UniProtKB/TrEMBL annotation:
Its EC number is 1.1.1.27. NAD(+) binds at residues 44-49, 69, 130, 153-155. PROSITE patterns: L_LDH. This is L-lactate dehydrogenase. The active site is at residue 210. It comes from Vigna angularis var. angularis.
Length: 349
């Protein structure tokens, strides 16, 4: 399947309407040679990939959006469906192809493609299938866009971000996993709901594995700049650790609940990844808990990707925030890293 996009020619003779509609400005200066055109490629047009693509379009984050998938019919259908909304969206060129060469020159490549777990299949076997899939996806993306940043969304995201890093040969700052950015959003929502405040006023992070071994950083939570736990202690307001653990458990279980109810998750991860894309491409230097190479941080020894609060900008990962962790949180984070490392060892990578 070749790339498809809207053009400026109509009719069997291919009449170029641009020449008929517009007259050139005399003595006009040539366009600036400074690169201002932004291109994002989304690999995989399943529910997650399309939610990301739709959110990127509505938030006007790119000049060109490319969709890549192996299912040619679905791919063309999704492309046409988005193109037909052109009158309601910011102007964005939308292309689609089964050939990854269409991604050439991408500023950001977002990988959502991944094998789904078959009933009764082990997690290790699922990982092996995704490893084979990434061996087919990542090298061509790197070949066509050697200066791109890779943003991995496919699950299990931490291990597959490590796989993408190894296959790409990129420096680690240009390979990022969506990690616990969404988990942290769920965490902030639950705390805000509990305290009846706006979630944007809550500063709270989930770190570690995007999964069951994730770590809630209770010691650093603040609301409106007020550290929550130290405030409760100073005011001698009692709280139960079990209550805190239940909130964290709700974060971990929330994705499972959405999947049980509607069959998949899409909208929240779409907003989460678009938020990351904005921070990267517009050099926002915002802090997000994303999956990064964690070796050397908080006593973690070994090449493992897991989520830590990191500053994002045009160069990808600009740095990891020096957030204070208490002893229990540090140990849980190290344990979370070991969980991922053990799986990587079994995978043989």
């Amino acid at each position: 399947m070749h790339k498809s996009a809207s053009g400026s020619t109509l009719g069997p003779g291919g009449l170029d309407l641009t020449q008929a509609f517009f007259k050139p400005i005399t003595n006009a200066a040539p366009p600036s040679t400074t690169k201002q055109h932004t291109k994002i490629s989304v690999i995989g047009v399943g529910n997650v990939g399309m939610a990301i693509a739709q959110t990127i379009l509505t938030q006007d984050l790119t000049d060109e959006l490319v969709l890549v998938d192996t299912n040619a019919d679905k791919l063309r259908g999704e492309m046409l469906d988005l193109q037909h909304a052109a009158a309601f969206l910011p102007r964005t060129k939308i292309h689609a192809s089964t050939d990854s060469s269409i991604t050439a020159g991408s500023d950001l490549c977002i990988v959502t493609a991944g094998a789904r777990q078959i009933a009764g299949e082990s997690r290790l076997n699922l990982l092996q299938r995704n490893l084979s899939l990434f061996r087919a996806i990542i090298p061509p993306l790197v070949s066509h866009s050697p200066d791109t940043t890779l943003l991995i969304v496919s699950n299990p995201v931490d291990i597959l971000t490590y796989v993408a890093w190894k296959l790409s040969g990129f420096p680690s700052n240009r390979v990022i996993g969506s990690g616990t950015n969404l988990d942290s959003s769920r965490f902030r929502f639950l705390i805000a709901d509990h305290l009846d405040v706006n979630a944007q006023d809550v500063q709270a992070y989930i770190v570690g594995e995007h999964g069951d071994s994730s770590v809630a950083l209770w010691s650093s939570i603040s609301v409106g700049g007020v550290p929550v736990l130290s405030f409760l202690d100073k005011q001698q307001i009692p709280y139960e650790k079990e209550t805190l653990e239940n909130i964290h458990k709700s974060v971990v279980d929330s994705a499972y609940e959405v999947i049980r109810l509607k069959g998949y998750t899409s909208w929240a991860i779409g907003y989460s990844v678009a938020n990351l894309a904005r921070s990267i491409l517009r050099d926002q230097r915002k802090i997000h808990p994303v999956s990064v190479l964690a070796k050397g941080f908080y006593g973690i020894d070994g090449e493992v990707f897991l989520s830590l609060p990191a500053q994002l900008g045009r160069g990808g990962i600009l740095g990891v925030t020096n957030v204070h962790l208490n002893l229990e949180e540090t140990q849980r984070l190290v344990d979370s890293a070991k969980t991922i490392l053990d799986m990587q060892i079994q995978l043989g990578i």
